[in-house]
Design brief:
By secondary structure, the protein is mainly alpha-helical. It is about 25% helix and about 5% strand. Strands 1-2 form a two-stranded antiparallel sheet.
Length: about 130
């Protein structure tokens, strides 16, 4: 007869025990106090990527069928003056010819305009100009 099922470890060969011995061992090793509050069931699938994608798909389907909910909160803050032009991109849209629309992306902000003559080829004096 195999070892009693109240042993801490099961046998190396699972066929050494009968089904009744396996059930007795599982009942003996089961914790007496399972987690009393496992938490909301939704939290487990919400953190999984597939669950997040399914949730987003269901919300999109709800919006498509019933429309967007009216209880969305809009946060508005007043600011003085025009916004700074710190963007690293320029967007020029041509509504009549969309194929002529363009987006220019810079790797760093444009340099401020230099003071003095701005025509190309104009002579200036200073250390930057060769031969000066």
């Amino acid at each position: 007869m195999p070892a009693p099922p109240d042993r801490a470890e099961p046998p190396a060969n699972p066929d050494d025990w009968t089904d009744e011995q396996w059930l007795a061992w599982l009942e003996a090793t089961e914790p007496d106090d399972p987690d009393p509050d496992p938490g909301p069931r939704m939290a487990a699938w919400r953190s999984h990527p597939v669950g997040g994608a399914m949730g987003a798909a269901m919300l999109g389907l709800r919006d498509a069928i019933y429309g967007r909910p009216d209880n969305e909160v809009a946060i508005v803050q007043e600011a003085g003056g025009d916004p700074p032009n710190d963007d690293l991109h320029d967007i020029r849209l041509d509504p009549d010819h969309p194929e002529r629309s363009e987006v220019v992306v810079r790797s760093r902000p444009p340099a401020p305009p230099a003071s003095g003559p701005s025509r190309p080829g104009s002579a200036t004096s200073g250390p930057d100009v060769p031969g000066a």
